[in-house]
Specification:
two-stranded antiparallel sheet; five-stranded mixed β-sheet; 8% strand; 2 domains; 17 helices; globular; alpha/beta; 56% helix
Length: 379
């Protein structure tokens, strides 16, 4: 699939991709609470490189010009390796790409100079990877890791990785991880922030359930800004809102898959997707599940801004930005979540509030024509 520059720019402005600064919007304020320590992870770099070589557009952005040049120079001769062919097949026949690749990365461990799937108490790969495919991919990944001497490339780039994590840690120093368990009522979690240089402009929020351990929630952050020496450059205004967004996914997405919620939301989700299909396609969301989860995550980002005492103009600017992207019901959803916050004695967890959310989307789907007409009349 050939991507035009215009299409790439559209992708970069979605949640799954980098959010460049929008200077017309007020800058959010984030209270300093607890620093986030980021890492560069060989699992993320390796899988991103594999799917870059396989030709996936979302793994072929070129903001990190020198790093991409190094990847091409080092790994170009390995494009005919079996794992690259298999990755292409998975992409072409099963739509493998985007966050599904990073979910596999999060479910891997690296011990004894090889990768294997971790033991889990609950699978986060279900619906994303068929186990037969995952096992075959990991076997081929180990072969590729050794054949390409990936560790040599990885160690040779420690200096840029160190710059990336140091600068990202500075940019995210005001991030508040304590907000999430308090807000969602899900306290058994550990956080991992990964700077994915080979992801370039893409950002993902996978999670994993290691057996006998806390749930691990990831924010796998891309890198889309660089200084004049081709070193990654991070600013809080550019990256912190996306970091907040990505961690929300691990607390939101799984609820749609539980307790029959998906079946209950399928009709309204489908109606809203049909109504907003052009806008959602621009954001690279082409299924109703993504529309539902993205609606909630974006509304929860607004609640984070409110809870961290941002000025009303910042909150309203964020709501307007999401409406422009096609989530016309953001303001009303934010208000609904305000009811959740004020009724925690009745709704101790986000999951317990989900029936109200289902009703909200049913009502929104029933009124979507009027909602669209009212929105466009204001433009």
């Amino acid at each position: 699939m050939k991507l035009t520059i215009t299409f790439l720019l559209v992708l970069i402005n979605t949640f799954s991709f980098a959010k460049p600064p929008v200077f017309s919007r007020p800058v959010p304020v984030f209270n300093k609470t607890q620093a986030v320590t980021s890492t560069v992870d060989r699992r993320v770099e390796l899988l991103s490189i594999v799917f870059r070589l396989a030709g996936n557009p979302e793994y072929n952005m070129n903001f990190a010009k020198q790093y991409v040049k190094d990847i091409n120079a080092y790994f170009g001769k390995y494009k005919d390796q079996p794992i690259i062919s298999f990755a292409k097949k998975l992409s072409e026949e099963k739509g493998m790409g985007f966050s599904r690749v990073m979910f596999l990365a999060a479910n891997l461990e690296f011990k004894g100079d090889q990768f294997s799937l971790i033991k889990v108490s609950k699978s986060s790969l279900a619906g994303k990877w068929e186990m037969e495919d995952a096992l075959k991919f990991v076997k081929l990944l180990n072969d590729f890791y050794k054949t390409s001497s990936f560790e040599v490339f990885y160690k040779n780039h420690q200096s840029i990785y160190n710059v990336a994590t140091t600068r990202f840690n500075q940019a995210s120093a005001s991030f508040d991880p304590n907000w999430y368990p308090a807000y969602y009522g899900d306290h058994s979690v550990d956080y991992k922030t990964v700077v994915g240089l080979a992801n370039v402009g893409a950002n993902y929020g996978p999670s994993v359930f290691p057996a006998g351990q806390k749930k691990i929630v990831y924010a796998i952050m891309g890198s889309w800004t660089f200084d004049e020496t081709s070193q990654p450059l991070f600013s809080a205004n550019d990256y912190l809102p996306t970091l907040i967004h990505e961690f929300n996914h691990s607390f939101v997405n799984h609820i749609l898959e539980e307790d029959g919620n998906g079946k209950l939301l399928e009709a309204s989700g489908g109606i809203l997707l049909d109504s907003q299909r052009i806008e959602m396609k621009r954001e690279a969301y082409e299924d109703w599940q993504s529309l539902i989860n993205e609606s909630l995550v974006r509304a929860c980002v607004v609640r984070y801004l409110i809870d961290h005492k941002n000025e009303d103009k910042v909150v309203q600017a964020e709501i307007l930005e999401q409406q422009k992207k096609g989530f016309l019901w953001t303001k009303e959803l934010v208000m609904l979540l305000g009811e959740y916050e004020s009724s925690r004695d009745r709704y101790p967890t986000f999951k317990s509030f989900y029936p109200r959310i289902i009703t909200f989307f049913d009502q929104t789907a029933g009124n979507i024509k009027e909602i669209k007409a009212a929105y466009h009349a204001k433009q």
